[in-house]
Amino acid sequence: MHAMKRLELIIERMAMKRAGRVLESAGIKGYTVVPALAGYGQGSYWQRDRDMSASQDMVIMIAISSDSVMQVALQDLQKLLGAHIGVLSVSDVNVLRPERF
Amino acid sequence: MLDLALTTLLSPVVLFFILGLLAALLRSSMSIPEAFAKGLAIYLMMAIGLKGGIAMSESPVTLAMIGVFAIAIALSFSLPAIAYGALRVTSKLSRIDAAATAAHYGSISIVTFVAATQLLASANIESSGYMVAVAAAMEAPAIITALFLASRGKQKSEPVAGSESGELFREVLLNASVVVLVGALIIGALIGTDGAKQISPFFVDPFQGVLCLFLLDMGLSAGRGLRHGWRQLDAAALGFGIYMPLISASLAAIASILLGLDTGDTTLLMVLSASASYIAVPAAMRLALPEAKPSIYLTLSLGITFPFNIAVGIPLYLTVAQWLQGGA
Fold first, then answer.
1. Residues B104-127: pLDDT tens digits?
2. Could you tell me if the ipTM is greater than 0.90?
3. What does the pLDDT read at residue A50?
4. What are the extents of the domains in chain A?
5. Nearest by CB to B302, which of A18, A51, A76?
6. Which among A11, A51, A58 is the top mutation candidate for probing chain B, defined by the most B β-carbons within 10 Å of its own β-carbon?
7. CA distance B7 to B14
């Protein structure tokens, strides 16, 4: 098994494409997006189907890469999260096929 | 006025809206599946766009029509400036939050418009088919004014990481509601009355029932927004959700007198001006002004102004329009 970094970014749906571009330009080879249903943060609840515009929907973006590529991505993601609603975490994971990341 | 208000309040569309609103306020677990609600929204926009287009196919473009478009676009550009000023003077909202909220009040709510056309139809008052196109034209200008207001006195900052040129343009001008509404309007104008016969069993007859379903969902959305969002607003901001539509409708009424519009079109121009967006503008604001708090502008537009317009505003605007025509 090979050590890698796993990024989990919970971010508003409207900023998903922006985050995707940041990950791609940093050199991350792939990511997966899953919908978030509901949550609580900063004193208020949010829920996926609350407004017709879906502008308050949140998604979870998951990406795995080497530490060096992840550091590049984190620099720009920090700027993105300065403007948009989101939570970012990075953890250590092991993968079977490192050439895919 | 009282009869009209009762007729509106006891119409199935409004009663289903109230049902949804009460259910959400009482914390019922009732919900309309998200994908189904989006399908209903597309159906309604297609139906209203087709109806407007078919009506337009029977009437030539006139100078008066162009005048209505020009005034409507001018209203959409200017109403956010008034809304922004009112919010900055009376409430504690920040410059960004006030600008983002103002954008919603210059844009329109197509469901409020549809509800108004239903009231006009039930009262046997005619309106022009091209008012649907006027509604589409009033979707976007307010966003430009809001961005200008938000950027005033602010140093030019770097673009948000990952942003792309043209993404806001696409969101504003090519969002689902604009594409479906304008597309259906053009298709309706092309197929005319003869083509309409082929699709009327789907788009005309079930329209009222689908509108009831949609308003039930809107009531749920409005109630949930109000339940969760009102704490973030002070009394002045909450009051804005009621008095701003009245200011906008008054300006539209003055414009209607200048344009010489009839009762139906005056009512619809007042409704369009008084309504606040909750579909196109919130999405655009997340891209253009991501620092603005969505709970503020969505609570105001969806939780306060929308119910006010549905229950009180529409019959009030119709009464004023009738009074202006000397037919109250």
1. 999 999 999 999 998 899 889 999
2. no
3. 67
4. 2-40+54-95
5. A51
6. A51
7. 10
Structure confidence at residue B153 (pLDDT): 62
DSSP 8-class letter at A49: T
Tokens of A70: 């992840």
Q: Do A51 and B282 lie within an 8 Å CB cutoff? A: yes
Q: Do A44 and B228 touch (CB under 8 A)?
A: yes
Put simply, the answer to whether A21 touches B164 (Cβ < 8 Å) is yes
Q: Measured between alpha carbons, how far is B150 from B138 in angstroms, rounded to an integer?
A: 20
| Predicted TM-score (pTM) of this structure | 0.86
> Cα(B28)–Cα(B31) distance, rounded to whole angstroms?
8
3-state secondary structure of A39: strand
d(CA B303, CA B85): 21
Burial of B61 (0-12, 13-18, 19+ CB in 10 A): exposed
pLDDT digits (tens, 9 = 90+) for B188-197: 999 999 888 8
CA distance A5 to chain B (A): 21
Q: Which listed CATH number (1.10.3720.10, 1.20.1530.20, 3.30.70.260, 1.20.140.10) goes with B2-21+33-153+163-324?
A: 1.20.1530.20
Contact yes or no for B286 and A55 at CB 8 A:
yes
Q: What is the 3-state secondary structure (H, E, C) of chain B?
A: CHHHHHHHHCCHHHHHHHHHHHHHHCCCCCCCCHHHHHHHHHHHHHHHHHHHHHHHHCCCCCHHHHHHHHHHHHHHHHHHHHHHHHHHHHCCCCHHHHHHHHHHHHCCCHHHHHHHHHHHHHCCCCCCCCHHHHHHHCCCHHHHHHHHHHHCCCCCCCCCCCCCCCHHHHHHHCCHHHHHHHHHHHHHHHHHHHHHHHHHHHHCCCHHHHHHHHHHHHHHHHHHHHHHHHHHCCHHHHHHHHHHHHHHHHHHHHHHHHHCCCHHHHHHHHHHHHCCCCCHHHHHHHHHCCCCCHHHHHHHHHHHHHHHHHHHHHHHHHHHHHHHCCCC
Chain A closest CA to B298's CA: distance in Å? 8
- CATH of segment(s) A2-40+54-95: 3.30.70.120
